[in-house]
Amino acid sequence: MTGLWTTLQSFTGAAMGTFASLHFTNNLVAPLGADIYNNIMLGVSEVYKNPIFEMVGLGAVLVHIISGWNSPQPKEETSSMHFLSRLSGYGLAALLGFHVFQMRIQPHLQNISVDFNFVSRTFNKGEPFVFLFYNVFFQFGLFHAAYGTARILRRIKFPKACEPNSSSLFLVVVALLSVGGVLTCLEFSKPAPFSVSTLLNKRM
What we know:
The protein is mostly helical. It has eight helices and no strands.
């Protein structure tokens, strides 16, 4: 049964990683400008905002949490790293609920389009809480995803010549994405050029 939980955790983690990659890619281009952000969002949101894809994502999150709770600590991992992995995972689950309500459910109920200006206004309206929230959300997600990916790679039997130097590679990738996440939050924290009433009038 232990092997089943571990396998489920790996597969659901990969499914969530695909979903998160599309979503994060969209947000990481925010420092390049509103037009680029909105154009990319129009493309990727067709995938990750698809109701079927969202239900699969929700199912993957629930199964991942349950399998993570039942999976034992791998022998090669220290107790502190295993604890941090679980802490970041449960923290993500709580933060994800607020994020989905704020950026998906609430705008849908109010018939408001989620674009660069909407996100920017949300950041400006809730500073410094929203800025801190999304930085913590991003860093938790980044750590949990990198840690989970490293665990999967350790189970793969690479040929000796092709064996990746995972430690240094992950440090570089995590550092770059971490900086990118902070820059994205800073970009959204700049004053939005349009008011809520202007946006609603444009949609009407």
